[in-house]
TrEMBL record:
Protein name as catalogued: Glycosyltransferase subfamily 4-like N-terminal domain-containing protein
Chain positions covered by the region annotation Disordered: 1-22
The organism of origin for this protein: Gimesia chilikensis
Amino acid sequence: MSTILSQPVDLSDSGEQPRPQESRKRLLLVSYHFPPVGGAGVQRPVKFVKYLKQFGWDVSVLMAANPSVPVFDNSLLVDIPEGTHLEKTRTWEPDYKLKKNMAQKQEGAQKVSLSGSLKSSCKKVVKAGAGMLLQPDAQILWYPNALKAGKRLLKRVPHDAILATAPPYSNLILASKLKKIFHLPLISDFRDEWDLSSKYLENHQRDRISDLIQTRLQKKVMRHSDAIVATTKASTQRLLDRAEQFGASPVGQCIYNGYDPDDFDTPHESTSTYSPESGRKFRIVYTGTLWNLTTIEPLVRAIEAVHQSQPAILKNLELQVIGRKTPEQREILDRLNQTDCTLICEDYCAHHEALKKMAAADALCLLLSDVEGADRVAPAKLFEYLAIQREILSITPAGETAGILQDFWPEGNFRASETDKLAHWLVNRLSGQTVSPMPHPEKRDQFQREHQAGQLAELLNQLVHHRI
């Protein structure tokens, strides 16, 4: 039977008294994405690496040497402790720019002619075939070289455990194979549930055969995992239930995403208290990807409602949207051009720059679409939003994220269907209504990255001790 661990972790002396060298242990982290790769998904593994050292664990990282990714962020390299072993090996994937150019050419071909349409159809067939072969994801093309490199490393340097973080889920397939060969304890860290990713990720193969393949691969991973870690309590339980269906019985641990106080050491630009007479606009900032699981439609709908009732007041509103946007989300944002709201859209920026933009906001926007499974999701940015201590405007379904926010910013906590309430909140803020400060800010401490690394270290120690 699967169980969830919830042991407290004592952090009081973690920084001052590292474990003696002879008692230190070593972890192999399997993470296709690792700095200088950027993006929200990189924060979790790199912060684990940064802080595990304080709990007696040194880390080797098995990573892609030429990852096919849209963004890089060299500012994240500062978080990698000196002496961390980075085992880099090449993937056979095409360069991301090449993939993007091919996708753009396909879109253009659809609009040119009948022959262009035929070519587009052929490309779709080829793409579908490739998707069928590349299971569970395109990063499986990294697997052959990564497996060789991982085997060489584990033969050369003794390790005590393996941790793989996903997505991409190819990380878990690779780690399962290494666990089978070297008989080391394996922790599978699910930043997103496998089934949810299969359901909602863009360009993900959706057909019966692919579903069967994905299920078989997931079963294999669950059976090889000694422990399953997820980013919410509900998600942890869901994954344990899934493991039990597969006849597996790993232990489970919820380790939330979080924030690193070191990221906030540099003073950020702070906004003066907004008022309609202040000579500036009320600034709402959203950071992150806009796609079908984080649609901005409810906020746009509320702004349109204000436009119908009090159009002039929208001259005081500035909405900054920072991050990648799908074409559908861009179309939704374009509707704001019919209002007096000032819309500022930017693509990805470095993590430290994103933090500055958050600090300069009057309110930070958090979005989760009202779809099946979203109640079990807690976006990584939530915890950095809490660290910034700006009011949070959240539009999420009832669930774990809404529950966390209820302790901090209950007034700005809405459901997607509550257009009138959202519009009322906007009017109040644009009119200069005073906002109460965050109650009990000390409650944020449980979400510090150091604390979470301590949770992971405790789990690792238990698995290693049990193995011995």
